Every structure is written in C-alpha cells, then in structure tokens.
Queue: 4 jobs
Job 1
Amino acid sequence: MSDKKNGLTYADAGVDIDAGNALVDRIKPAAAATNRSGVMAGLGGFGALFDLKAAGFSDPILVGATDGVGTKLRIAIDTGHLDTIGIDLVAMCVNDLVCQGAEPLFFLDYFATGKLEMEDAATIIEGIAEGCKRSGCALIGGETAEMPGMYGAGDFDLAGFSVGAMERGAGLPAEVSEGDVLLGLASDGVHSNGYSLVRRVVEHSGLSWDAASPFGEGTLGQALLTPTRLYVKQSLAAIRSGGVRALAHITGGGLTENIPRVLPDGLGISIDLDAWDLPPVFKWLASEGGIAEPEMLKTFNSGIGMVLVVAKDEAERLTSLLTEAGETVAQLGHVTKEAGVAYRGNLL
C-alpha cells in the first residue's frame, strides 16, 4: 500500500465513525432497560433476534408498523427540547399495532443527521427507549446515519419500525355491527399529526416558541411538544377481557377518517360532539387560526387519541376497566346502519 501524505479520511468528509460507536455504547443501558421475554440478542450485531415462542405465542401472526413524527420534529429542533420526541416515535407505531389486536414485541429506530451530536442523539434515543419501556416493547436495534450535506446544522430525521404478534384468529377488527358503542380515550394534546397547520397558526399568532403558553403551563414550544399518549397496555387489557371489536388510532384524518377504517362496508357511525370537552390547546388553535369545526375534526385528534368499538352490553364494564387503568373515557356514540360519519352537537 502506498503511503501518500495528506490523504483524505472519512472524518474529513464529515462522518465520525468513532462517535457513532460511542453513541451505541452510550445507549446500551437504555436499550437494556426495555428487555422483555423473547429478546435473544440486541444492539451491536448485524441483526437482532427475537424468539416468539419464548414470548408466549403458540401460533403467532406477525404484524408490522412504521411511522415518523412529521413536522413536530421542527419544533423539537428549534426549541432544543429533545427528550420526548422519541416517545412520539414509538407511540405512532405501537398504537397502530394494538389496533390490529397485536402485542408490540420489539422496536427499531432510524436516526439521520448531518453531524452527530452525542448528547442530542443520546437524549433522543433514550426517549425512544422510554416509549418502548412504557409500552412493553423491546428496543433491539436501529440505525444512526451521519450524512453531511443532506441535513442542515442541527437538523435530523427519525423513523420507527415496530413488530408485534397475535395468536392466529385473534386479529381486529372483528364482528363490528350496528349498535356497537364507541369509547373514546382522551389524548394528551395534539400528539403527532397536524403540525404543519399548528406551525402555521403559531406563525400567524406572532408568538415565539419560548413565549408563555396561552393554553397551559410552560412555554408554547414545550406545551406543543407534549408527547403522544401510549395506549398499548390498557388497550391490550381491554381486548383480552373480551367485548372489544375494533380500535382506531386517531392520527392524521382525525375522527372523521380513522374510525370508518375499522368498519365493515355499509356501516357508519354517529358521534356526539358534546360527549367530551375540547382541550384548551385545540380551542386556542381553532380560535387563533380561525379553523372551522369540520377541519378540526379531520386534521386533529380534537382530544380523543384512541377509539374502541365495543359490544353494547360490554360498554360499561370496559369503561370501568379503562378508567381504572388511568384512561379518561367518553362514550362518543355508536355504529349505525347508515354509511358515513354523522356528527351531532358542537365541538367548538
């Protein structure tokens, strides 16, 4: 091999392999804290191993989900508050899995940035680990990509991938029928959808991210970074107790578009908008942005982050079960024989 002076290195091109290796070592304890039955091998290998039999399944069907957190990332980047955005990433994936009746088993993340900043990256991934821990899901792998020239200073992107399982024949939705009751579980705020509109409203208001929140405690940026609520453990408990026929994670499309996704052809829903109180953040967005009620219901979760479709004679029992699990539950309405979504009452 020739010995040329002043030869370029990968580090000269902006990629620090040593920093990436150091990050893996830094996050290993956080990943280890998410360990659950079935995990065979985690971080460090070319792949991660998971034993479905050891996780307690006899005839499993695998269910996969992938998602991101959208332009909520922009607020996290601009404010420097990075500790909860990883929880959002996990929630957007595992909340979808449980809607299929699946138990989330493991999670992998993709973190891409122009220049790897150790503390920021570790904070983000430790947030991912926290989301996994809260949902009983193991963080067993991921990818950290340092890509100079692709991202501006301080910018990054996130994607998440989760795999769950259920026993054959236990998938949802199942047997949804006219008269079934809609139970809405309260959201913890805007969650992770509609942030392009949120950012436009904030721009219109003239407020900065560090201004006092006009609808809650702390700064505006901190309030809007409240993480997506995780509904996994409480939803699985409800499913396993019987009477749950479908679940709908209320993300982009709001109540208007997400609930019909779990209905058989020909059926619809009737929703009473007076069944719950619209949280202050949504009242502020609607007022400041002049957003009409139909747009609110189609863009945001409007205070309801998950909807369970349950048998009518099981509604009260499941309401009690979910309430005891820490959820705020509202009986939103019911399934109808007329296709479409019918609203009554007033949201605003």
Note: The CA atoms of residues 95 and 232 lie 6 Å apart.
Job 2
Amino acid sequence: MFSEELEKYGWEETTEAIMSKSPADVERALGKERLGLEDFMALISPAAAAYLEPMARLSRKYTQERFGKTVSMYIPMYITNSCTNSCVYCGFNRHNKIARVVLTPEQIEDECKAIKRLGPFENLLLVTGENPAVAGVEYLEKALQVCRPYFNNLTIEVMPLSAEDYARLTRSGLNGVVCFQETYNRKNYNIYHPAGMKSKFEWRVNGFDRMGQAGVHKIGMGVLIGLEDWRTDVTMMALHLQYLRKRYWKTRYSVNFPRMRPAEGHFQPNVIMSDRELAQAIFAFRIFDHDVDISVSTRESAGFRNHIATLGATSVSAGSKTDPGGYFTYPQSLEQFAVSDERTPAEVETDIRREGYEVVWKDWDKVFD
C-alpha cells in the first residue's frame, strides 16, 4: 500500500530538498525527456520561477503531442451534503448549521435533465458528503443507474470505499473515481480532519490502491491548496502518481490542484498560491507525466482557465453548482464552496474555441458492455 511507500519520505526533509534546488537543477530537468522525482522537485522549486516561460512552452508541446488541441468538458452533480466528517475548511462540516439534503432517485433524474439542457455534457461527476448511513454503496449504485441513460461517462467523488465496493459500482456503470487526499502531511492531517472517517489517514491514502485493485478505469487525484506547503504536497502527489502507474498501469489518471475558496465556516487558508505558482505546478506535472489528465475546475477564474487550457490543462468543468440539487431541485441554497468562473457552458466553449482549441463533450464510451 502507498502509506508504506510514503513513510520513506519525511515531510520536512522533502521540503528542504525542494527549497535547495538551484537554477542548474531546473535547467537539467528541462533538458530531460523523462523526469524523476528529484527533477520534479526542481521544477516546482522557487528556483524554477524564473523559468516559467520555457516550462510553459514545454508543457504546451507535450500536451499537444498527447492530447492534440482539445479540452474535455465535465460537470459536477452534488447529490447530498449530509456528512459525518468535521473537516474544518468544508461547508459540509457536520457542525455547520445548514439544511441537509439527500436527493431521491427522482430528484437525481430531474438534475440530469436540467444539466442536459445546459449543454451536451457526457462526462458527469457525482459528488456526495461522507455519510454511509444515508448515502452508502446502495445509494451510489442507484444514482449511477439513474444517471447512466443520460451520460456516457460517470465518475464519483465520494467517501473512500473498499475494493469490493469499487468493483461493484464499476459493474453498475462507474467509469472513474476522484478522491482528494487534501494533504499528504500525516503529522498535521488530523488538524484539518479531527473526526469522522476522513480522519483516518491510512484508509484515505490507501483508497487509491483499492481503486486500482478493483480495475477502476480512471483515477483522479488532488491536494487542497491552502492547508500545507503546496510544493511539498504536490511533490507527494507526484510520488503517489508514479507509484500508482507502476502498479495499476491499465488505469488512466488525472490530477487537480484546487485552491481554497470561501465556504461556510470561514476557515482561512494557511498558504496562498498565486496564479503564477498554480501555473508552475501545472507545467511541472505535465513535463513530469506527459499522459496525465490535468483538470481545472470553476474554483479558478475565467481568465486563468482560458489561458491554462492552451498550456497544459486538458479538462475543465463548466456551469458548476456546488449545492445538492443546485441545477433544478434546490437552486443556489446549499453550496459547498463559492465558484469563481460563473460563465455558462456555452460561454466556456466559445472562449476555448476562440483560443483555437476543440471542445470535447464525450471522450469515453463503453462500447463492449
């Protein structure tokens, strides 16, 4: 399991290694076709800030070679905000005094119909809080079955499950799983996750192994920018991605770098990442892994997303609502966090095409069921 591999890398030691990288280390990494972890650390180090332009050019080159001039579109659907966790930064924290909703199958279908009216989406991300008593595997399985007639690609972002449960959901139409580790800093992890299943660091970080063992087609990873040193966290995620690729090589992978946005509870980020630093992290990941899908959500501004779509990002969300039932049933009432890019899907598509890129609404079809 990855938790055992992670024990070989001390947080403080890794941070020091990153901060000690020199311009020569950066230039050496940029001259390589394939990078190791030390090279990746050079590209996300402060020394690499002066090399953002050559990093951007190299990131664009590798992205176009692997993905062409395309950007995939997806949309999230929040189906419940019921949660047993106490994550200090999250609007769904069980102590927050908000109305709790668990959408019925009929309401989920209404949301599907409303999303299809927004645009020709085929990639749907189902999102829940973590409350297995009311939104467990049976509930998720039913939700997938309701959504399948409307969407060709179904991904979930839910509580970590067992390998057997991931396999069960895969048989019910699941294509992918997204899970944010939030932070790889084991020492400080429980400061942000003091109670609930999410407080169990090993169970969460080893969930990606269970996804791979279950044969999940695509695995999405992410760290929440704002909790701990972002350079160290994304280095640990690069290590994790490298580990997963070696063991579950039939699986596709994606990464995400969500910067904290305002949410109920008023938690203030410990770390602020600038737009240039976010771009640096994206370029570094593309140069490190030419095949990984890099996703940028509506947490980021329209201007940033337009620009980064030509330099390394390969999938974006559009028209997102972060509240359960937000498209039809309970519009604008129970959101997990505030979005930054409020453009309609059509407006996002127009802006991407204006950059000379093709918008892909559907990129997966299970034709051999």
Note: The chain has a mean pLDDT of 93.
Job 3
Amino acid sequence: MYCDFHTHTSFSSDGKADPELQILRAIELDMKKFCITDHEDIGYPPEYGLPFTVDIDKYFDTLKALKEKYADKISVLIGIELGLQPRLTQEQEAFVQSRDFDFVIGSTHLVGGEDPCYPGYFGRYSQKEGIRKYLEQVLKNIKSFNDFDVVGHIDYIVRYTADKGAGYDCADFRDVTDEILKYAVENGKGIECNTSRLGCGLLHCNPHEDIIRRYRELGGEIITLGSDSHTPDTLGHEFRKAGEILKEAGFKYYTVFEKRKPEFLKL
C-alpha cells in the first residue's frame, strides 16, 4: 500500500490511538514508510477546551524507541502537523527547529482565530463566504511562514459546510486557490491528497481533485498521501482511489519525506 504521511496518535489532543498500534496497522497494510504527524497548534484558543500541543520530549522519545523496535519491518518517520497563524511565526519557527523532524505539514485550522469546525462559523457566513475566508487565510498563512514541506488539506473547510460539500464548486474560488498553488510551486512546497472524509460524508478528497489537477498543471510535483487517521482502522483510507486521482491529474509519482527531503515513489 502507498505510504501514509498524515496520521495522528494519542499525542494529539483529539487522538486516542496508541502510537504502537498505528505502526502495527501500517505494517499489516504493508506500508514501507509511515509518518506520524501529531498536532501542534501553538496559540489554539483555550475556549475550545483542547490544547492541541504535543509533549515534544515524550513524543520524540516514544517514536524513536518504536522506530528502532520495528526498523526491520517498516521505516517510521517523525513528523508534525503545524497549525499556522501569521502572528505566531517566530514561535512556530522555534518549534520546528527544536527537533529533527522528518516532515512538516503546514495546515490552517483557524480563520482569524476562530475554528470553523464549530457551528458558530457558518452561522455567520454563507457557505461561499465561509469557504473564501478560509482559503484566503490559507494563502496568508503560507506567505507568512516558510518552514513546512506541504500545505495541509487545502479546502479542509468544506468538511464543515452544512451540505458536506455537496454544493461546493471549487471553480468559484479559482482565483485564490491558484494563488495558493502558484505560491507553493514557486517556493518548492508540496500539497497533500487528504482522504480523511472521502466516501465518509464527502464526495471528494481535500483538496478537490480539480485543485490537485491544477497544481500539476502549474508545475507542481510534490504531493503526499494522507489519511488523517486518528485510529488504526482508518489508516490508508481510500488510498487506492487516491492513487487513481493522482494518476488522472497527471502524476506518475507521489512523495514521502525523510529528514525534510522529498523522495518520489512510483504510483
């Protein structure tokens, strides 16, 4: 199976999976490489009740021990999903540089300090307004902070629309998504094909297949696959379909990272 490069464990505030069980499931699925990317959202609003910060010393100690334990069966990589906020770029940079991460996802989980997964967000904005605001935040975030490898789940906001994306037309936002993709290409950043909700309430991956195709048209080459799994049973979710999506978009390879360096594997 393709390698999963967006996964979570109990080190994430919203995760319950034992890291070793995630690794054992990846071995069972015959993944050759596997990256754990737990959440680090510096400055996440305390009113939501989840800190979204990693005990970084324990994280590295635990994953390094497991990496060594299963070295003959799988290559375990240590990553992080960093929640970006322009006002915290110095803190984010210090965090990324504090450890030897293999892979860093730059994700947007907040819009102006508000988490759109909560009902209040779309209580104030129409679907189109809410999606546009989110995408504009993604663009602002990646322009303010450079020390990441791929842009996480670009149109993630669609997960939280009232119709679960049924009425979402990514062509309505082509101007801003093109800016995101062009900036990524020009700065050597990749994107991910996130399959978390594909077939589980959403009709499309994040980002939409048309956005993935557009990234390739603009010269993008770096694309990772991520299930965004928080439990072993969802590792590699819909990866066969994801491979088809990438091939249809014009990709011959997908990407994995080690020591922040991309490696291209044949689809």
Note: Residues 216 and 250 are 7 Å apart (CA to CA).
Job 4
Amino acid sequence: MSKVCPKCGREFMSSRTGKCPICEVALVEGVDNSEAARKERLRELKERELGNTGSQTRQNQSQSNQKSVQNQGAYRENQNTDLGMKNKPVSSGPSGLSIAALIFSFFGCLSFVGTILAIIDLCIKDGKKKICSVIALIITFLWCFFIIMVIIGSGSEKPKAVTASSNGRTTTQQADTQSGESSKDTFGLMETAEMNDIQVTMTNYKESAGSEWNSPASGNVFVLVEFEIVNNSDSDLAISSMLSFEAYADDYAANSSLTALLENDQNQLDGSIASGKRMRGWVGYEVPSGWRTLEVHFTDNVWSSNKFKFFVQK
C-alpha cells in the first residue's frame, strides 16, 4: 500500500518512510486520496498550525503582561521609596547633647561635664552638626589655660625692698612694717623694689599743666613719673608704658596719656631690656588737678597677681 502526503496528495511507495520531500509533512498510509479528502486534510492542517501559532502568541502575551506587572510593581516600590526619602526629615542643626555641652563649658567648675558631653556627642554619628561640641572643648581648654596661668602667677615672689649698705653694696630683704605683722605693700620715691630678679625704682615725678598746643582737659593736669628698671633675670624683659603700668589717682583709675609724654623731653618706658641691662624712662597720666595721692602699679608678667606698687603724694 502506497503512502500519501496529506498536504499535497502525492503518493509514494510504501517502502518510503518519513516526510514528504516537498511539503515536509509526515506521510500517512491508508487514507482517502481524493481531491475532496486532500482539501479537508489541508484545511485541518492549517487550523492546527493557526492554533499552535495562536497558543504561542497567547503565551508570549501572557509573559509580556507578567513582565509589565512586575515592572509596574517595581516602579511603585521605587516611587514609594523616593517619597519616603523626601518625607523623611533631614537631620540639621546641633543636637541637644552638644547644646548641653556648650552650656556646661561656660561654668568653670562644671566645664569638665561639658567636655564629657562634647566627646560623647562627637562620637555619635547622627548627622547632626557638631559645632557646639567643638566650641565647648575650646572653651574648656581656655579655662584650663587660665587656671594654670593663675596658679603660676600666684606662685610669684612678693616684692622685696633693696637698700644700700654702709660699704656701698645693695642688700635685699623682705620689707616689713614696724609691727612686723605684714609685708610692705607700696614703695615711695627713690625706693627700689625687687621681684623675680627685676628691680624697679621710682626716681622722680612732676606735674604739668601742658602748653598752648598740648593741654589736658579742663580741670585736669598731667602727672609724669620716672622709673628705672634693672633686668637681673636670664631672659629679655618687654616693657610697655601702656600695658606694664596702671595708675590710680586718689583710688580712682587714671588713664595713661600719650599727650602727657609729649610734655617731657626724656625717654618713655617702651622697649625690651636684655638680661643684665637697665632702662630709664617716663610714664604719663591725666588726673584731676586737685589730686592728692597717685599710686602706680608695674608688672613684669601679665599673668602675675603680684605687682610693684609705688606711692606718690602731692
């Protein structure tokens, strides 16, 4: 029995197996090979091909829809995340811990508490600004520096009086009052005081009403005081007529006056004294014309609480 191609109707020997060499369709045997049968088989074959194509199309469409749904879900998730990031408050400004550290640092006795809080705040990574903690540490450092300088200054010597002996040499002794109960606080004209290897002597003073072109304010006069300073220390000594001296007229603060120094032809006390050398010069003040006493303080160290004090009585 011959085999037939169900598509084109060609007949082949029964010994042939496989597909039609023209239509590439599997051969069948024992089928009606009339024109009507071939048309019917061809129609069924086309329907099967169309059915497979439609099924593949539907499958592809389903996969495409799934991917679209997944993409939409991912988009919504990203959008929600972005909205969450936008709605999340941004960390700005100093933290409460750093503000507390700054407040404590202003109080000398509690500055160590501010230091601890500032260090803790700097170790916390919360996105807050740390400027208050940094300022608190700086203030604490300044407190420590100030306390150390006060301790150093308070340990300075007290001024000692220097007197001349019968053999012409000078001797230094602690100046006491006649009662011996307290140390001498102030020194007068031509008295030499010594402290920290610095000797200071008030050698002269004078009063001036000024001149036609350089006069004090109405009711005031110029008072000029001369000092001699000897540097017996191992280092240079800086002297400033503005910073190293301060004065009080009848217990009221007297202002240093540069115009008063213009009335004097001598040197003013400004400059540096080398070790083993000395300087002589004047300082000037403007005081009320009815002044009775003038007290001049000299310090060789701005951090020292001890000062040379010289007393002038009109």
Note: The first strand starts at residue 3 and ends at 4.
